[in-house]
Write a structure and sequence with these properties.
It is built from 8 helices and 2 strands. It has 154 residues and is mainly alpha-helical. A two-stranded antiparallel ribbon has the order 1-2. The protein is globular and about 45 Å long.
């Protein structure tokens, strides 16, 4: 399992990837990566929405409030993210929103000590350590970045 620092470094690596997304055509940005799959825009929006969700949860944890199970329907949440990407938002604006949200998320994660990073919290729908959850989110990013990269190279 990655260390806190490895997670933070990999989370910050999104910047280079997002910068490269500014160079793709609008057609490629909005074309589904496969039949029945999201477009690059929808995937980026999906990551943005999850970063916002995590940031909200982290702020609750930092305030030391009792954090209960998140009342979230993942399918509805993902659909909302996809719809946001199709709402007419410009590529540059969506990318900038993700960059800013990711920076805030990294700053928030930095506020947690190594000890707190290993504590068990109610983050989404189950209790787990912040380290475990964030490791899964790094893998989640990698999965989606690989999807996009494969699509764009075909």
């Amino acid at each position: 399992m990655r260390t806190k620092n490895e997670i933070l470094v990999q989370y910050a690596d999104i910047d280079n990837f997002l910068q490269s997304m500014l160079n793709i055509s609008d057609k490629a940005w909005l074309t589904p990566i496969e039949l029945g799959k999201w477009s690059t825009a929808e995937i980026i929006s999906h990551i943005l929405f999850w970063d916002r969700f995590i940031l909200e949860r982290l702020l609750l944890l930092q305030s030391r409030k009792h954090v209960t199970k998140a009342n979230i329907n993942v399918e509805d949440f993902n659909r909302e993210a996809a719809n946001y990407a199709k709402s007419g938002i410009h590529k540059e604006e969506l990318i900038q929103q993700l960059k800013e949200t990711r920076k805030n998320l990294i700053d928030s994660l930095n506020m947690f000590s190594e000890e707190d990073f290993n504590k068990i919290y109610m983050i989404q729908d189950k209790e787990q350590s912040l380290r475990s959850y964030m490791n899964a989110m790094v893998d989640h990013d990698k999965f989606h970045f690989n999807q996009i990269t494969t699509f764009l190279s075909s």
